[in-house]
Design a protein that fits this description.
The chain contains six helices and six strands. The protein has 178 residues and is an alpha+beta fold. The protein folds into two domains: 137 residues, Nuclear Transport Factor 2, Chain: A (Roll), CATH 3.10.450; 31 residues.
Amino acid sequence: MMGQALNEVSTSTREKGGEGSADIAELISAFADFYRELSVNKLQSLGTIYQRNVVFKDPILTLEGLPALSDYFEHTLKNCTQCSFEIVDVLQQSNSASIQWKMRVRHPRLNVNREILLDGVSMIKTDQKIVFQQDFYDLGAMIYEHVPLLGAGVRTIKSRLRAAAKGPQNSLNSKMIE
Protein backbone atom coordinates (compact mmCIF):
# COMPACT_ATOMS: atom_id res chain seq x y z
CA MET A 1 0.00 0.00 0.00
CA MET A 2 2.84 2.40 0.82
CA GLY A 3 4.45 1.83 -2.57
CA GLN A 4 1.13 2.56 -4.23
CA ALA A 5 0.76 5.83 -2.30
CA LEU A 6 4.31 6.87 -3.23
CA ASN A 7 3.77 5.94 -6.90
CA GLU A 8 0.64 8.09 -6.92
CA VAL A 9 2.71 10.98 -5.53
CA SER A 10 5.24 10.62 -8.33
CA THR A 11 2.47 10.45 -10.93
CA SER A 12 0.64 13.48 -9.57
CA THR A 13 3.92 15.36 -9.36
CA ARG A 14 4.62 14.78 -13.04
CA GLU A 15 1.08 15.82 -13.95
CA LYS A 16 1.38 19.09 -12.00
CA GLY A 17 4.82 19.81 -13.35
CA GLY A 18 5.33 22.35 -10.58
CA GLU A 19 8.79 23.70 -9.84
CA GLY A 20 10.52 21.52 -7.28
CA SER A 21 7.73 18.90 -7.39
CA ALA A 22 10.06 16.07 -8.34
CA ASP A 23 12.37 17.05 -5.47
CA ILE A 24 9.56 16.86 -2.92
CA ALA A 25 8.47 13.45 -4.27
CA GLU A 26 12.03 12.19 -3.77
CA LEU A 27 12.11 13.71 -0.29
CA ILE A 28 8.79 12.04 0.63
CA SER A 29 10.20 8.73 -0.60
CA ALA A 30 13.28 9.23 1.60
CA PHE A 31 10.97 10.22 4.50
CA ALA A 32 9.01 6.97 4.04
CA ASP A 33 12.22 4.92 3.91
CA PHE A 34 13.51 6.57 7.09
CA TYR A 35 10.31 5.98 9.07
CA ARG A 36 9.53 2.50 7.70
CA GLU A 37 11.57 0.88 10.52
CA LEU A 38 12.52 3.68 12.90
CA SER A 39 15.34 2.96 15.34
CA VAL A 40 18.15 4.69 17.20
CA ASN A 41 20.57 3.23 14.63
CA LYS A 42 18.99 5.33 11.85
CA LEU A 43 19.28 8.69 13.61
CA GLN A 44 22.64 9.54 12.03
CA SER A 45 20.77 9.89 8.71
CA LEU A 46 18.28 12.51 10.01
CA GLY A 47 20.28 15.20 8.21
CA THR A 48 19.50 13.64 4.84
CA ILE A 49 15.81 14.58 5.14
CA TYR A 50 15.72 17.41 7.70
CA GLN A 51 17.30 20.89 7.50
CA ARG A 52 19.64 21.81 10.33
CA ASN A 53 17.15 24.49 11.52
CA VAL A 54 14.05 22.23 11.32
CA VAL A 55 11.03 22.99 13.51
CA PHE A 56 9.23 19.83 14.65
CA LYS A 57 5.88 19.85 16.49
CA ASP A 58 3.81 16.99 17.82
CA PRO A 59 1.15 16.70 20.55
CA ILE A 60 3.89 16.46 23.16
CA LEU A 61 6.26 19.33 22.34
CA THR A 62 7.85 21.71 19.85
CA LEU A 63 11.53 21.36 18.95
CA GLU A 64 13.89 23.63 17.03
CA GLY A 65 16.99 22.33 15.31
CA LEU A 66 18.30 18.99 14.11
CA PRO A 67 20.26 18.22 17.33
CA ALA A 68 17.08 18.67 19.43
CA LEU A 69 15.10 16.44 17.06
CA SER A 70 17.80 13.77 17.17
CA ASP A 71 17.91 13.88 20.98
CA TYR A 72 14.11 13.62 21.16
CA PHE A 73 14.02 10.59 18.85
CA GLU A 74 16.92 8.94 20.69
CA HIS A 75 15.21 9.39 24.07
CA THR A 76 11.85 8.22 22.71
CA LEU A 77 13.20 5.21 20.82
CA LYS A 78 15.78 3.85 23.25
CA ASN A 79 13.21 1.71 25.10
CA CYS A 80 10.94 0.92 22.15
CA THR A 81 11.05 -2.66 20.99
CA GLN A 82 9.37 -1.68 17.71
CA CYS A 83 8.52 1.54 15.90
CA SER A 84 7.49 1.46 12.26
CA PHE A 85 5.37 3.54 9.92
CA GLU A 86 3.32 2.69 6.87
CA ILE A 87 2.57 5.59 4.55
CA VAL A 88 -1.12 5.41 3.66
CA ASP A 89 -1.60 8.50 1.51
CA VAL A 90 0.24 11.63 0.42
CA LEU A 91 -1.12 14.97 -0.75
CA GLN A 92 1.42 17.49 -1.95
CA GLN A 93 1.88 20.91 -3.45
CA SER A 94 5.13 22.53 -4.57
CA ASN A 95 6.96 22.77 -1.22
CA SER A 96 4.54 21.18 1.24
CA ALA A 97 2.85 17.84 1.81
CA SER A 98 0.39 16.05 4.04
CA ILE A 99 1.48 12.49 4.77
CA GLN A 100 -1.07 10.12 6.31
CA TRP A 101 0.48 7.18 8.17
CA LYS A 102 -0.11 4.23 10.47
CA MET A 103 2.40 3.76 13.25
CA ARG A 104 3.08 0.45 14.97
CA VAL A 105 4.89 0.79 18.26
CA ARG A 106 5.82 -1.49 21.16
CA HIS A 107 7.14 -0.17 24.45
CA PRO A 108 7.60 -2.14 27.69
CA ARG A 109 5.77 0.51 29.74
CA LEU A 110 2.79 0.79 27.39
CA ASN A 111 0.21 -1.92 26.79
CA VAL A 112 2.53 -4.52 28.37
CA ASN A 113 4.81 -4.26 25.31
CA ARG A 114 1.99 -5.31 22.99
CA GLU A 115 1.71 -3.54 19.66
CA ILE A 116 -0.14 -0.23 19.57
CA LEU A 117 -1.51 0.84 16.19
CA LEU A 118 -1.93 4.57 15.74
CA ASP A 119 -3.19 6.65 12.80
CA GLY A 120 -1.65 10.05 12.19
CA VAL A 121 -0.72 12.75 9.73
CA SER A 122 2.49 14.70 9.22
CA MET A 123 2.29 18.13 7.62
CA ILE A 124 5.66 19.10 6.17
CA LYS A 125 7.15 22.18 4.51
CA THR A 126 10.33 21.86 2.53
CA ASP A 127 13.23 23.82 1.12
CA GLN A 128 15.28 20.98 -0.43
CA LYS A 129 14.87 19.20 2.91
CA ILE A 130 12.16 19.32 5.57
CA VAL A 131 12.20 22.68 7.39
CA PHE A 132 8.93 22.22 9.28
CA GLN A 133 6.96 19.17 10.40
CA GLN A 134 3.85 19.00 12.51
CA ASP A 135 2.49 15.60 13.50
CA PHE A 136 -1.16 15.07 14.40
CA TYR A 137 -2.27 11.95 16.26
CA ASP A 138 -4.37 10.88 19.22
CA LEU A 139 -2.01 11.06 22.19
CA GLY A 140 -4.63 9.36 24.36
CA ALA A 141 -4.74 6.35 22.03
CA MET A 142 -0.96 6.21 22.03
CA ILE A 143 -0.17 6.68 25.70
CA TYR A 144 -3.00 7.42 28.13
CA GLU A 145 -5.13 4.39 27.21
CA HIS A 146 -2.20 2.06 27.88
CA VAL A 147 -1.10 3.30 31.30
CA PRO A 148 -2.41 1.11 34.16
CA LEU A 149 -5.38 2.65 36.01
CA LEU A 150 -5.34 5.81 33.89
CA GLY A 151 -5.97 3.74 30.77
CA ALA A 152 -9.11 2.18 32.19
CA GLY A 153 -10.48 5.63 33.02
CA VAL A 154 -9.72 7.02 29.56
CA ARG A 155 -11.29 3.98 27.86
CA THR A 156 -14.41 4.34 30.05
CA ILE A 157 -14.77 8.02 29.16
CA LYS A 158 -14.33 7.29 25.43
CA SER A 159 -16.89 4.50 25.63
CA ARG A 160 -19.41 6.79 27.32
CA LEU A 161 -18.81 9.51 24.74
CA ARG A 162 -19.37 7.01 21.89
CA ALA A 163 -22.59 5.82 23.55
CA ALA A 164 -23.76 9.41 23.99
CA ALA A 165 -23.00 10.13 20.34
CA LYS A 166 -25.22 7.19 19.34
CA GLY A 167 -27.99 8.31 21.67
CA PRO A 168 -30.51 11.15 21.61
CA GLN A 169 -28.29 13.58 19.71
CA ASN A 170 -28.20 11.34 16.65
CA SER A 171 -31.97 10.93 16.66
CA LEU A 172 -32.26 14.73 17.04
CA ASN A 173 -29.97 15.22 14.02
CA SER A 174 -32.10 12.75 12.05
CA LYS A 175 -35.24 14.76 12.86
CA MET A 176 -33.53 17.97 11.78
CA ILE A 177 -32.67 16.46 8.39
CA GLU A 178 -36.28 15.33 7.78
